[in-house]
Amino acid sequence: MRLHDGRVVHFPAVMGVLNVTPDSFSDGGQYLNPERAIAHALEMQENGADIVDLGGESTRPSGAREVPAEAELRRLLPVLRGLAGRLRVPLSIDTRKAEVARAALEHGASIINDVTALGYDPQMARLAAASKSAVVLMHMRGSPENHMRFARYRDVVIAVTGYLAARAKYAIRAGIPASRIILDPGIGFAKTAQHNLAILNSLPVLCALGYPVLVGTSRKSFIRRIAGDSPREIEFGSAAADALAVAAGAAIVRSHDPGAARAAIRMAVEMRGRNITK
Ligand code: HH2
Is the pLDDT of residue 130 over 90? Predict the structure, then answer.
């Protein structure tokens, strides 16, 4: 995918996660210190991240609290400033607020990762269109504060695919070219373990919409439940899910351990052929 600053992300790609939050479910509090956050972003770049995804608000299932834009920016700005000129790989900003996304774009971000698929902030679609940034449109029901209340579907694959097709249409109508849209089924967002597995089993259905698909299974609770709860089991379980997602057609995997994800998707590419994604 060619980004507006001319950089190209080759698929399958690894998106490394950097949460500058006190309460993220797996790395909350670890990178609140800007120096540590910057060092971790650079370390992920060295370890195989093709994109760094920076977030200042947690969306964890049990009771994430909405953070005002000013507080989100207070967490993010020192990191954005510190990364300027040092991060070679594209930066993605994980936010639902246009004000936060705008500041990140001004500091060099080129992808907006919006877990509300441009649905939370009416200004977000306009900003994405005007800035020519790429956008990740993710499926969720409800909001980051309450999404697990809505984890009921007749057919989760049809519901997620239909929703994302509609959000892509909305984005295109707002002026965002199809070539800059990435779709994400939102693993763990308003979804039980069974829903997550059903989606991962049917990824080709979502891929058939024709957009690159991003999958974020890293360290989520269904991985812990299936693979085991020790750090190694969580890391291996997440990497296995990354490999299988890429083998099924995913273009990007979002991971807290980019080195493990990189090795896992290399195996998927070699075992399934190089042309498994567009
Ligand atoms: N998952 C999380 C956050 N942002 N964005 C996309 N596009 N896809 C995901 O699956 C996704 C996401 C949740 O993980 P994490 O960032 O580790 O936790 P928290 O939201 O608690 O900060």
Answer: yes
